[in-house]
Amino acid sequence: MARWSSAPIFKFGSHLPVLIKALSLADGPALEMGMGMSSSIVMHWLCAAKKQLLVSYENDRDFFKWPLEANRFDWELHKVIYIEDWDKADIEKPWGVAFIDHVPSARRKVDIKRLANYAQYIVIHDAEGRHNSVFHYEEVYPLFKWKYDYNDYFPKTSVLSNFVDLTNFTV
Questions:
Q1: SS3 of the chain
Q2: Is the CATH number of domain 16-161 3.30.450.20?
Q3: What is the pLDDT of residues 112-121, one digit of tens each?
């Protein structure tokens, strides 16, 4: 396991090993809150291969333009939804995986709380201590029975669950 001082820093994609693992283990549809160059493409194809529904919410209109062109991903098994008000996101229902990587930053803890009793695996990006002052993840950790921290790359990624024992969750 890498230490803080020696772990490589990646601007995008450091969450992919954890997200791929969670998607491979989960049953049920997947949720993506905040689309991105790494997560959206990987989630799209992994869910398509499993014939598993993926719902992606995004509140930044720029993601519907180049380079991602998010609306190109919208099809029968991948619903891409532009949303202006995160409170209106229809997320309080069962999910195999919920990936949290949206803005504004203060919104993440609100939606993690909303998902606490619905998602088998909640994968949260930007989970290291330096982001706690922005995302306030420490406020949601007590809501979960299990937590796994992936510390090999920066930004770090964590998995939370009330349904699946994460004691042996390794990447």
A1: CCCCCCCCECCCCCCHHHHHHHHHHCCCCEEEECCCCCHHHHHHHHHHHHCCCEEEEECCHHHHCCCCCHHHHCECCEEEEECCCHHHCCCCCCEEEEEECCCCCCHHHHHHHHHCCCEEEEEEECCCHHHHHHHCHHHCHHHCCEEEEECCCECCEEEEECCCCCCCCCC
A2: no
A3: 999 999 999 9
Which phi and psi angles does 6 have, rounded to 5°?
Answer: -115, -5
Residue 140's nearest CA partner among 154, 161, 157 is 161
pLDDT for the residue numbered 5:
47
All structural domains of the chain with their residue ranges: 16-161
**Nearest-10 crossing angle of helices 39-50, 16-25:** 20
- Residue 134 confidence (pLDDT): 80
Residue 126 Ramachandran class (φ > 0 left, ψ -120 to 50 alpha, else beta) = left
> pTM of the full predicted structure?
0.91
